[in-house]
């Protein structure tokens, strides 16, 4: 399993170094990559995805926790309980993403509206509050689901 971790590490370091080389090139110079870079990037991506699948298939037994002989006070959490806890956290995550998507354009538009007419500040704050309320609703649903578990 260590060889899979090494493959993933090499692929990630290679992708990072390639990104840095592309980012640090001179600003006025157009991007002219050698012909071998396209297959190299594709090869690194295939190695990375293959190593991830190998870790998933071959290293799944190492990911499971082993029972300890002396643990008396250990709390037993079943797979269903773990999935229930993950399911209770999903509404918060998705609603936060939705609130971020909503607040971005509303915030930009409200700043533009305030610069033209400063008396619209209260109205734009209401719109921002409504968009941010989406995340609060997701948090409330997650709390309610956690109380049911």
Automatic annotation (TrEMBL):
Cellular component, GO annotation: proton-transporting two-sector ATPase complex, proton-transporting domain
Q: Which residues cross the membrane?
A: 45-64, 126-146
Q: From which domain of life does this come?
A: Bacteria
* GO terms of molecular function: proton transmembrane transporter activity
Which Gene3D superfamilies has this protein been placed in?
Answer: lithium bound rotor ring of v- atpase (1.20.120.610)
Q: Which UniProt keywords are listed?
A: Membrane, Transmembrane, Transmembrane helix
Q: Where in the cell is it found?
A: Membrane
Q: How does it sit in the membrane?
A: Multi-pass membrane protein
Where's the V-ATPase proteolipid subunit C-like domain? 86-145
| A Pfam family of this chain | ATP-synt_C
Task: Give the chief site where it resides.
Answer: membrane
**The protein's name in its UniProt record:** ATPase
The organism is: Lamprobacter modestohalophilus
């Amino acid at each position: 399993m260590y060889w899979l971790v090494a493959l993933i590490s090499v692929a990630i370091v290679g992708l990072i170094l390639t990104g840095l080389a592309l980012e640090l090139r001179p600003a006025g110079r157009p991007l002219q990559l050698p012909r071998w870079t396209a297959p190299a990037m594709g090869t690194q991506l295939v190695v990375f995805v293959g190593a991830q699948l190998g870790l998933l298939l071959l290293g799944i037994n190492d990911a499971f926790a082993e029972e300890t002989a002396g643990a008396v006070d250990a709390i037993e959490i079943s797979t269903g309980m773990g999935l229930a806890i993950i399911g209770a956290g999903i509404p918060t995550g998705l609603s936060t993403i939705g609130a971020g998507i909503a607040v971005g354009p509303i915030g930009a538009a409200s700043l533009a509206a305030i610069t033209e007419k400063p008396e619209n500040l209260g109205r734009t704050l209401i719109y921002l509050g409504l968009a941010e309320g989406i995340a609060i609703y997701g948090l409330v649903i997650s709390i309610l689901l956690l109380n049911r578990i």
